[in-house]
Amino acid sequence: MAGKIYVVGLGPGGPDQITPRGEAALAASDVLVGYTVYINLIRDRWPGKELVATPMTTEAQRCRLCLERALAGQTAAMVCGGDPGVYGMAGLIFQVCRDRPEVEIQVIPGVTAATAGAALLGAPLTHDFAVISLSDALTPWETIEKRLLAAAEGDFALCLYNPASRRRPDTLARAAALLLERLPGDRVCGLARMVGREGESWQLCTLRELGKAPADMFTTVFIGSSRTMVLNGRMVTPRGYEKRGEL
Amino acid sequence: MAGKIYVVGLGPGGPDQITPRGEAALAASDVLVGYTVYINLIRDRWPGKELVATPMTTEAQRCRLCLERALAGQTAAMVCGGDPGVYGMAGLIFQVCRDRPEVEIQVIPGVTAATAGAALLGAPLTHDFAVISLSDALTPWETIEKRLLAAAEGDFALCLYNPASRRRPDTLARAAALLLERLPGDRVCGLARMVGREGESWQLCTLRELGKAPADMFTTVFIGSSRTMVLNGRMVTPRGYEKRGEL
User: Which residue in the set B95, B122, B130 is minimally distant from A238, CB to CB?
Assistant: First the structure.
């Protein structure tokens, strides 16, 4: 009988950020598979459990390993940072298992960087928002630009994942320059880094300053909508309760 | 000395869906304040704790109560379903406390309906996506329409909160009709209802069928991007790994 694959979100990092449901899935699994950074985050919490850490860019191989174990009757957990369904392994697991419907797949959500970073900065995503990854490893840069412009056109608050990396140090600057063609330079922006982990930090800036702000693969970037403001040093997008005359 | 306000996300509902960090904040609070539905979800878990449940549409009053308690030196927890920063109370708390910078506000993120519902359906949000509330209680319907069209223009996967209610039974149908002017009728869609609670259910349909699908305030709706597909009965938006030739 075929086994099962859990795709588990660890949340932003610390052991107090995964849900009990996620923790129970890890406990019920024979093997925990994941990108090295995430396996290292949980290594100490699972002594005696089989752990398989694989480097970045071997995602399909990592998913196939889970499939092989499940076909052998085991329960495998694919461990992801944040939420597995937001730029995580959930989609790829379904793709890799497409010809094996007998393998049960259960995705266990976690707190994603958009909401964890937002909580640190204040409340930038309390109204409608769009989430875009600036990584062009799997997405043509033209598609990314098209989405940035559409989000600006719709006056969405924006959350950017993977704003820059060593290979592409300038993608955040390019995105900010593009948005500056449509949005005012004083638009409120924010950056959250290493959320929920050691070295956590955050800062606010304007869209004009965003292109020069320090960003890397551990940073999540927020760009306000036309209604976003700074209140007591925090970034806040009001939902509109003030219209009820209650404030 | 002024007290503190925690704004805590319960996640989708069950006690196994809140993070240990959120649970610790509830434990550390003198009073738990929230919308009746959410207070009822946790009532049995906090015997002896002061609980204040207030009905919908009294949001500002609810936030002011937290502020009053904090000014009196207490620690108050504003309890929200899902994540407090996504259509939750985080923004309003900062607004209500804008003249009282001495009150510390800490937002504790939770699993929001977008990712909890996505996990149930498969992996519809694994690539770029936009989140829009269809409630026109605080947002003009013209703004909602503008954002729906911008999201379609940007080929985002879409997640819709508050798709319909007793007061506005037709908003999902109106949104679907509008999107059908720009998107093909066979675009993959999905609905998740009562996620993480008793009576949880989900279904897939096409955009053509979406306007007649059953939706209420406990439903979260997903509309795929041009790349979203159905794999073994689940809704999946691939991230693009197949381009690496690994699949």
Answer: B95
Assign B243 to helix, strand or coil: helix
Q: Which among A18, A151, A237 has CB closest to B154? A: A151
Phi-psi domain of A13 (left: phi exceeds 0; alpha: psi -120 through 50; beta: other):
left
The torsion angle over the Cα atoms of residues B53, B55, B59 and B61, rounded to 10 degrees, is: -70
Q: Is residue B168 less than 8 Å (CB to CB) from chain A? A: no
- Interface membership of B122 toward A (CB under 8 Å): yes
Q: Where are the alpha helices (DSSP H) in chain B?
A: 20-27, 36-42, 59-71, 90-96, 113-121, 141-153, 171-180, 207-210
Q: What ipTM describes this predicted complex?
A: 0.97
Identify the residue whose tokens are 């605080």. Answer: B138
Name chain A contacts of B62, Cβ cutoff 8 Å: none
Whole-structure pTM over 0.95, yes or no?
yes
Q: Which two tokens stand for residue B212?
A: 């007649």
The residues near B116 (Cβ < 8 Å, ≥ 6 apart) are: A109, B11, B12, B17, B82, B192, B195, B196, B220
Query: Which residues of chain A have a CB within 8 Å of the CB of B239?
Result: 87, 91-92, 138
Separation between Cα atoms, residue A196 and residue A15, nearest integer Å: 9
* Residue A84 distance to chain B (closest CA, Å): 8
Helices (H), A43-170: 59-71, 90-96, 113-121, 141-153
Backbone angles phi and psi of B160, in degrees to 5: -110, 125
Say how far apart CA A118 and CA A221 lie, in whole Å.
9
Query: How far apart (Å, rounded) are the C-alpha atoms in residues A35 and A41?
Result: 10
What pLDDT tens digit does each residue of chain B (247 aa) get?
889 999 999 999 889 999 999 999 999 999 999 999 999 999 999 999 999 998 877 899 999 999 999 999 999 999 999 999 999 999 999 999 999 999 999 999 999 999 999 999 999 999 999 999 999 999 999 999 999 999 999 999 999 999 999 999 999 999 999 999 999 999 999 999 999 999 999 999 999 999 999 999 999 999 999 999 999 999 999 998 877 766 7
